[in-house]
Amino acid sequence: MVNYPHQVSRKIQSQKRAFPKKEVNFANRGMTFETAINDSNQYYLAHGKAVIHKKPTPVQIVKVDYPKRSRAKIVEAYFRQASTTDYSGVYKGYYIDFEAKETRQKTSMPMKNFHAHQIEHMGQVLAQRGICFVLLHFSTLKETYLLPAAPLIDFYHIDQGTKSMPLEYIRKYGHPIIMGGYPSLPYLDVIEKNLLGGETVEEPKS
Length: 206
What we know:
Elements: H1 33-46, E1 51-54, E2 59-68, E3 71-79, E4 87-91, E5 94-103, E6 108-110, H2 116-127, E7 131-138, E8 143-148, H3 149-159, E9 164-166, H4 167-173, E10 175-176, H5 187-195
Parallel strand pairs: 5-7
Antiparallel strand pairs: 1-4, 2-3, 4-5, 6-9, 7-8, 8-10
């Protein structure tokens, strides 16, 4: 089986049929963080606000089994090249590029989740005056932040990503996002209010 990077595992919630369904929202409908992002991108596309998609991961298939004549199963594959960031697209003529990370930790975001080639890519996007950031979700705290790429790159360069980024640092340089409405993750509101022509289009510190 192929395990794609950055995928968020879906929680399976079993409910007895005898109980009535609860009101649908992000917290109780079993929606994963990645699903919320994809759902929001579909909402933005359908309403003509932005065109943003998850980047496909190039995979080289090595072996395929056919348990049934009408069904194929990939049993061995590898990634052709290292991935950069999760999502890219365009919003009001601006190039949008971002990564999404989730953690169950309550006080920090592990920097081991970020790789050197991703940090380099983000810096290159900023150098071209694109809007680049990361969406960080603390599942235990039910808190989500949009952190511009520049402070992420600065923190990474302190020790080449071996430390965890404190939540206080994220709260200081990031922007909170309230989840649960339509779209599920209204990150374009944060971009419109805080980032257009702002800090994310500046080149990172050398």
